[in-house]
């Protein structure tokens, strides 16, 4: 199996990276807004086809698969792009599966967004008039929002709120929706890990002490090497898991569980070590390394039932090799 991106997939990556760099930046300009991303920026992302990237063309999507979606969400994670991208994409596939045509059209057009329900009645990136997606076991539910009460969030480019869900719009017991959610979450976490690695390497090359770049010092060099290794391992597992889930393989859930475990660990370790590599300025607001840490914790809260993921890793029903 060739896990390297095709030329078409590489074009997708480059277009997404360029757009995010030019239009979104590191998400800092959205800090303090009442929504995690403004309507104009959200509409531009919609116009690029990002929400419907993995949806069929006959329903208004682009016609790609989960593999391409994972590559896109890796870039969204790397850029710390604010907004309910993961939950809106998953919500779209659920409502399409349920035949809720009008809601699907509203999501595809960007008129409607879909936040993510967490534990204890809290939700990420929700707003009055939005929808919210909830995941319980293998069941995924998209609901209307009855009420929203904003709450404090360490990640200031995410919006945390106490939410009361209203009427259900669509429900699906198809486990592929849960796998899609976990793959896209894993890709976002991997992007954070890679952003932390790149930030550390750039600083290690530019910063000098005793007349030499600090990257030549063994302690810094080893930390950066470990950061790179975590990213490579997590990337290989992510791409393999995405392909297994996309093909509907019976062992996909095990590979997806492994992917999210590796990506989360890479994001947590790399974002923390990135601050250490920068020394005193690593803790400053101006550098922004803390935003990688904060987004990691926000996404980690969305992982859900970790015990179930561990059970999936320890006792897979079947592993296929081909």
What is the strand and helix layout of this fold?
Elements: H1 7-24, H2 39-47, H3 66-78, H4 85-98, H5 101-109, E1 114-117, E2 122-124, E3 131-136, E4 139-151, E5 160-172, H6 175-206, E6 208-209, E7 212-213, H7 218-246, H8 252-277, H9 289-300, H10 306-314
Parallel strand pairs: 1-3
Antiparallel strand pairs: 1-2, 2-5, 3-4, 4-5, 6-7
Describe this structure in words.
With 322 residues, this protein is of the alpha+beta class. It has 10 helices and 7 strands. The chain has helices spanning 7-24, 39-47, 66-78, 85-98, 101-109, 175-206, 218-246, 252-277, 289-300, 306-314; strands at residues 114-117, 122-124, 131-136, 139-151, 160-172, 208-209, 212-213. The termini are close together.
Percent of residues in beta strands: 5-15%
CATH superfamily of the domain at 177-314: Butyryl-CoA Dehydrogenase, subunit A, domain 3
Topology, number of strands: 7
Using the alpha-carbon principal axes, give the shape.
globular
Topology as H/E string? Answer: HHHHHEEEEEHEEHHHH
In CATH terms, what is the fold-level topology of the domain at 177-314? Butyryl-CoA Dehydrogenase, subunit A, domain 3
End-to-end Cα distance, whole Å, is 8 Å
CATH-derived architecture of the domain at 177-314:
Up-down Bundle
The SS-based structural class is alpha+beta
Count of separate DSSP helical elements: 10
Largest sheet: 5 strands, mixed, barrel
């Amino acid at each position: 199996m060739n896990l390297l991106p095709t030329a078409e997939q590489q074009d997708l990556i480059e277009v997404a990276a360029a757009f995010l760099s030019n239009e979104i930046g590191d998400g800092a300009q959205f800090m303090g807004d009442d929504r995690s991303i403004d309507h104009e920026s959200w509409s531009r992302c919609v116009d690029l086809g990002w929400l419907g990237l993995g949806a069929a063309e006959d329903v208004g999507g682009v016609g790609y698969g989960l593999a391409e979606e994972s590559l896109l969400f890796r870039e969204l994670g790397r850029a710390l792009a604010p907004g309910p991208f993961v939950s809106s994409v998953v919500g779209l596939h659920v409502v399409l599966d349920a035949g809720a045509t009008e809601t699907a059209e509203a999501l595809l057009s960007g008129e409607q967004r879909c936040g993510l329900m967490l534990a204890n009645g809290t939700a990420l990136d929700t707003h009055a008039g939005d929808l919210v997606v909830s995941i319980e076991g293998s069941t995924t539910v998209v609901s209307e929002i009855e009420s929203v009460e904003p709450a404090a969030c360490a990640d200031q480019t995410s919006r945390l709120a106490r939410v009361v869900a209203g009427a259900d719009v669509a429900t699906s017991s198809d486990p592929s929706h849960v796998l899609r959610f976990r793959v896209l979450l894993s890709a976002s976490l991997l992007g954070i890990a890679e952003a932390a690695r790149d930030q550390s390497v750039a600083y290690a090359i530019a910063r000098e002490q005793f007349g030499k770049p600090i990257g030549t010092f063994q302690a810094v060099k080893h930390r950066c090497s470990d950061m790179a290794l975590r990213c490579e391992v997590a990337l290989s597992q992510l791409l393999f898991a995405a392909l297994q889930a996309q093909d509907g393989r019976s062992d996909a859930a095990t590979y997806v569980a492994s992917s999210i475990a590796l990506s989360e660990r890479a994001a947590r370790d790399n974002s923390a070590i990135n601050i250490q590599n920068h020394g005193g300025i690593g803790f400053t607001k101006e550098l922004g390394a803390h935003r990688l840490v904060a987004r990691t914790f926000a996404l980690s809260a969305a992982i859900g039932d970790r015990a179930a993921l561990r059970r999936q890793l320890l006792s897979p029903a079947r592993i296929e090799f081909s």
